[in-house]
Specification:
The protein is an alpha/beta fold. The chain is about 50% helix and about 20% strand.
């Protein structure tokens, strides 16, 4: 029985190795969400060699020899063997063992983003003692460990098939370098997705793509505007149609609604499958924003896996002066510090208007350092403020910005009920954090609420919440003692919060 069992083990192991090494699995049998893989293990390592053979034979992935050429990097973080006695004979000698093999892998992008985090795979076998054994115990143990190794590699392959695509997210400052590289290669990537809430940056990215496409001979342009109720077939028609003059084509798709709808999602899924086959068409998809639910949709993940995603977020107050400086540098100008601070205050939250003001300054004062007087004479107050700006100013104890933001929101006729609702909600989160630093607060507001909580007390925040309730009644036309103008009272409350943040 022992001999037969061990013969079976040898046969099973031989078949496993033969299957992995001789192409038993057809290439392309399993499709993974990346095209190239670097196995970060020694070249002569047997485990690494078996992994490379298995992936090359069973998937669509090409194994590369350099990490900088890979879409994904597979690392073996640790490996361990363990042998435990599970029975002894009458003389107290070890008879049977439980053998265990562990391997911990991690799969990342070249930038370190994880397809899956460190994950441990485990296999175990029982090694039985027999006086009539044909093989030595050492040989049998080696056979079992080899068998477990192949088992773990199979588990790894199964895990690889379940990973989700990671969008190739390009920062705005990287776009120029990528376009330069593709310009040198003479061809643009077939799919670009521009996502962002900053209209100017998104517009400039689209301009840069169109300019590069024109340079490379993409002379035909098709613009499609789609909504959730549109007929999406023109997108597939535009991709599949052949120009009479065999010209390269650029297609621009703009969303008129937040999502494509059911029919549009199906068409986009089909389109994502076509993208790798397109060599004479560039498609640029413009999205105003993508929330978490959108990013989890099949159509978005498929598109992101097939193309470049360029993300733009609104420029923060802290980043804004540096952004203005860089734009001044590109047009051969600079600003004195006071002038820069004034310009930032006048144009905050409205980068599109800031660009127009910078163009005026370039025409009036070309190639010089701008003074405060020159900027004051030229620049209009075109700033735009939001409730997020207000909460940030309060949390950062910036009294001047708090006052400026309230005044701006009042001039823009922001709806008072909405403003009071957000301020009250922010204070409730802050109050929770003053009592318990681990309180369940939404991640989007935790950082700001935490700043205010660290600088204030529960009593102060509770008092401000009571005043918000008074302001809510005042905004609804009810009488509140010693209070008559809701905007004036709100300004007083917010300034007090920002000022109080400086002193507990």
């Amino acid at each position: 029985m022992a001999l037969a069992r061990r013969s079976f083990l040898f046969s099973a192991l031989a078949c496993t190795l033969l299957a992995s090494g001789c192409g038993f699995h057809l290439r392309g049998q399993v499709t993974l969400p990346f095209q190239t893989l670097y196995v970060n293990m020694p070249v002569n390592d047997k485990v690494a060699a078996d992994i490379r053979r298995m992936i090359a034979a069973s998937t669509n992935v090409t194994i590369v020899s350099q990490a900088n050429r890979a879409d994904a990097i597979l690392e073996l973080l640790s490996s361990g063997r363990h042998r435990e006695v599970i029975s002894v004979n009458m003389q107290g000698e070890d008879r049977d063992y439980e053998l265990t093999l562990n391997m911990t892998f991690r799969l990342t992008t070249p930038d370190g983003e994880e397809f899956f985090p460190p994950t441990t795979f485990t296999a175990s076998r029982t090694m039985y003692y027999n006086d009539d054994e044909y093989l030595s115990r050492a040989s049998e143990e080696n056979v079992l460990y080899n068998e477990m190794q192949q088992d773990l590699i199979s588990q790894l392959l199964s895990r690889l098939t379940s990973v989700e695509p990671i969008p190739h997210d390009i920062k705005s400052e990287e776009l120029g370098r990528i376009l330069d590289r593709e310009r040198a290669q003479g061809q643009l990537s077939p799919l670009w997705i521009i996502v962002g809430e900053e209209p100017l940056l998104a517009m400039e990215a689209g301009d840069a793509l169109r300019f590069t496409a024109k340079e490379l001979g993409y002379s035909e342009r098709v613009v499609l505007a789609m909504s959730s109720v549109s007929d999406w077939s023109p997108l597939l028609d535009a991709v599949s149609s052949v120009s009479l003059f065999d010209d390269k084509k650029i297609i621009e798709l703009r969303f008129l609604s937040s999502g494509p709808g059911v029919k549009g999602a199906k068409v986009l899924a089909q389109f994502a499958e076509l993208v790798p086959q397109i060599d004479s068409t560039v498609t640029v998809i413009h999205l105003t924003q993508t929330d978490y639910s959108t990013q989890k949709t099949t159509w978005f993940k498929n598109l992101a896996a097939s193309g470049h995603v360029i993300s733009f977020q609104p420029v923060s107050r802290a980043q804004y002066p540096a952004c203005i400086k860089e734009r001044l540098r590109k047009q051969g100008q600079s600003m004195q510090e006071q002038a820069l601070n004034f310009f930032a205050e006048q144009t905050e939250g409205n980068l599109m208007a800031a660009k127009q003001e910078l163009m005026k300054l370039d025409l009036l004062y070309p190639g010089k350092e701008l003074t405060l007087r020159e900027v004051e004479d030229c620049v209009m107050n075109v700033s735009r403020y939001s409730i997020e700006d207000l909460l940030e100013a309060i949390a950062q104890a910036d009294v001047a910005r708090t006052t400026r933001t309230i005044n701006g929101m009042q001039s823009e006729d922001e709806p008072m009920p909405f403003v009071l609702m957000r301020v009250s909600s922010f204070l409730r989160d802050t109050l929770a954090l003053t009592v318990d630093r681990q309180a369940p607060v939404m991640p989007s507001v935790r950082a700001l609420a935490g700043q205010l909580a660290r600088r204030s007390t529960p009593a102060k925040i509770a008092n401000m919440l009571a005043r918000c309730a008074d302001l809510d009644r005042l905004a609804k036309g009810l009488t509140v003692q010693n209070k008559d103008d809701v905007w004036s009272e709100l300004k007083t409350l917010c300034v007090f919060l920002a000022h109080a943040a400086n002193r507990k």
